[in-house]
């Protein structure tokens, strides 16, 4: 037993932990959990916990259902909402087959494989997400959701529901070792944003899954409803997860080159070019629901066209310039990702696209400094700004042709995502009117 496992066992005993929850996600990014007693921890570390993998979306086929969940002791954290006495803790798991091999369809393993490819090139991949979500009054069946306030961007609402909510949520996140950089009210009524501090991509994906659980728990405590739906209100902005990306070589930021335009290195420019070139084919992963396309094509600074800019929030890829000349701050912001994505798979395809740009030496096209939404269609076409997929159906078609995504996800995950999304699109078409299909109206 290693030192980290010993630490977990000792902490469980000292903190009077009654249940240890083993967490993992299905292919769609839905959190799964099985609770074990402290007495079972040593066996879980040495042998894992068996479960029926065929009952989990996309994990395995029915004739090879036996799977093993093996907890990662480095992810151990006490769950603060369960109280001080006879509390609960959680650990994320890696999913394995009975012979000890990593499950090909485990999203956490997909990300690990992609990170290993980056590591072979000497890179460590860091991410920093800005996570947006809405707070609604308690939902009533058959009625439209009512936001908890009518505030706007950066509004300070004394004793407001959102202000208290963010304070309690951040306190809980930090109690679990998740550092928060900023929080504020967003543009939409009842819309909030909490930004997590930079971390390596695997840690951050774990943190995002924990973040969603914390937000839901605090919402339940306060009698409100938290939604990560990309576009819950037709007349208000959607909820994105704008994500800042960087590659480091040891302690050196590989994206930084002093004296170059925007301090961007050749590596950074090639990485950004990779994101742009492969954006349409990775969109089904970064924006996986019918509702995701209501956000992408609903205006309000949502990116709809494949372009980049240094200070342009209508562009898909943005180069932040808040701290020019500071090497550690040079980064790329990808604005297409929405808050409902599976972070393990989304980070995998984004990293793979960027690495492809570096490997193939892609050239970064000229940047967009105009509001892309204000340009005419002919102007966008003349500037080479191709549209992102405009519907789930179009995103499916783009991914079907993608060797990059197929290789990154692996055959099982790739095939499952396509099957699942084809079924989702068909179900959507059967439930809405032709007018709704034509006008792309949001549906709850």
From TrEMBL:
Alphabetized SMART domains for the sequence: Gln-synt_C
Keyword terms of this UniProt record: ATP-binding, Ligase, Magnesium, Metal-binding, Nucleotide-binding
The EC category is: ligase
Cofactor dependence is on:
Mg(2+)
Q: Return one GO MF term.
A: ATP binding
Highest taxon of the lineage: Bacteria
Q: Name one GO biological process term.
A: glutamine biosynthetic process
Q: Provide the GS beta-grasp domain boundaries.
A: 15-100
List the EC numbers from the record: 6.3.1.-
Which is an annotated Pfam family here?
Gln-synt_N
What family does this chain come from, according to its entry? Answer: Belongs to the glutamine synthetase family.
Under PANTHER family, the record lists:
GAMMA-GLUTAMYLPOLYAMINE SYNTHETASE GLNA2, GAMMA-GLUTAMYLPUTRESCINE SYNTHETASE
The protein depicted here goes by the name Glutamine synthetase family protein
